[in-house]
Specification:
This protein is an alpha/beta fold. It contains seven helices and four strands; from the N terminus they run βαβαααβαααβ.
Amino acid sequence: MTTKANIFLSQVATTVATDKPFIFWDTCSILDIVRVIERNTYDNFNLVKRIVNSIETGNLVSVTSELVVAEYEKNLIETDNKLNNQIRDLKSRISKISELISNETKKTRLVKAAELVDVYANVHDLVDRLWKNTIVI
């Protein structure tokens, strides 16, 4: 994982922009981005996209601690596995629902659309963008 910078607490005053608001991430707030399906937090996901855009444009400073990075890395595999299982279950349900559709063209469209669901890539793209713009103390 790539972060914007790793600094010591003593460097905060000289490294972090003091004229900008900042957000200090904890482990769960970052993992909850990956848990979007599990937690049914689609509105929060869109809010996080706006926050990351504000960070990328320099209107907001993103900060976290080394402990958060370590906890995130420790819990990511399990969280990713859950996300992949939920995506697979969602696609399976859509496939089963498609069997109730009598029109073959519509059935095929629905199944193909389900296969295009790229939640995993979108979630991790957002998290990667967040980490790349986050200062670690």
